[in-house]
């Protein structure tokens, strides 16, 4: 329970006006997943979470149900809830869905974005830059996800926004599971350039930049089925070959 408590409580937020207890629990867990403080396959004990947040298990259950609808946690009968751990094939499908979704969002954002929304996004990019500069990768990743959610808000389409929240959090899981190499980040300039294109109303430029941005994210993920395996004979095939020679 200690690890779960530390993962959930880091960066605790105070309750804001209008939030229900369900909302508070949901937001804390959602952020912990986005910041990769709760890695894939982490068991989410209702009893432990109820103690951590000082609420009933009924409230915890409602928050977990919301997260399961967004596909960021799995709930199985008699086994409880765990943070989702998408397979390679599921990861490919999620990323393809994101590519289609981001195109629709960008097209609408160019048409509907307000100056206030763009200014808010620029501040978000500044915070993201600072987080990565301070090697706070979890916070930087969460802010990057919030940037894409803000783009969906610019689109002014409620169903797309709901879908985007789910896709962004699922993408965070993919990065936690499949990102290769170090946690270098060069998306901040891409985010700024994207905002510039939206602000000037250049739809084609914005679409091109989003395509390049998603390809950059995709290129850092190891989604090649042949390069990862749970089979020890596959993992240590080079040793077997040397023994045979």
TrEMBL record:
Q: A GO molecular function for this record? A: DNA binding
One Pfam family name from the record? GntR
Where is the signal peptide, in residue numbers? none
Keywords, comma-separated and alphabetical: DNA-binding, Transcription, Transcription regulation
Q: Which InterPro entries match?
A: GntR_C (IPR011711), TF_FadR/GntR_C (IPR008920), Tscrpt_reg_HTH_GntR (IPR000524), WH-like_DNA-bd_sf (IPR036388), WH_DNA-bd_sf (IPR036390)
Q: Which domain of life is it from?
A: Bacteria
Could you tell me which residue ranges the HTH gntR-type domain spans? 19-86
Q: Which PANTHER family match?
A: HTH-TYPE TRANSCRIPTIONAL REPRESSOR NANR, TRANSCRIPTIONAL REGULATOR, GNTR FAMILY
In Swiss-Prot or TrEMBL terms, this protein is called GntR family transcriptional regulator
Which species does this protein come from?
Answer: Vibrio chaetopteri
Its lineage opens with: Bacteria, Pseudomonadati, Pseudomonadota, Gammaproteobacteria, Vibrionales
């Amino acid at each position: 329970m200690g690890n779960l408590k530390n993962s959930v409580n880091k960066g605790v937020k105070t309750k804001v006006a209008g939030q229900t207890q369900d909302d508070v629990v949901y937001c804390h867990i959602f952020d912990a997943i986005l910041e990769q403080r709760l890695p894939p396959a982490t068991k989410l004990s209702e009893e432990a979470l109820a103690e951590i947040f000082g609420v009933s298990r009924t409230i915890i259950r409602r928050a977990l149900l919301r997260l399961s609808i967004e596909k960021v946690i799995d709930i199985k009968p008699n086994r409880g809830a765990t943070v989702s751990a998408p397979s390679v094939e599921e990861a490919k499908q999620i990323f393809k869905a994101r590519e289609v979704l981001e195109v629709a969002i960008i097209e609408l954002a160019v048409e509907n974005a307000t100056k206030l929304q763009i200014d808010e996004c620029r501040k978000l990019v500044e915070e993201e830059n600072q987080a990565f500069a301070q090697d706070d990768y979890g916070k930087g990743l969460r802010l990057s996800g919030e940037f894409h959610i803000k783009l969906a808000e610019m689109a002014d389409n409620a169903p797309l926004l709901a879908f985007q929240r789910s896709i962004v959090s699922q993408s965070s899981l993919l990065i936690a599971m499949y990102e290769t190499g170090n946690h270098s980040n060069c998306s901040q300039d891409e985010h700024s350039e994207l905002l510039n294109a939206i602000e000037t109303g250049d739809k084609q430029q914005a679409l091109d930049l989003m395509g390049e941005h998603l390809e950059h994210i995709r290129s850092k993920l190891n989604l090649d089925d042949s390069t990862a395996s749970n089979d020890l004979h596959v993992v240590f095939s080079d040793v077997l070959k040397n023994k045979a020679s």
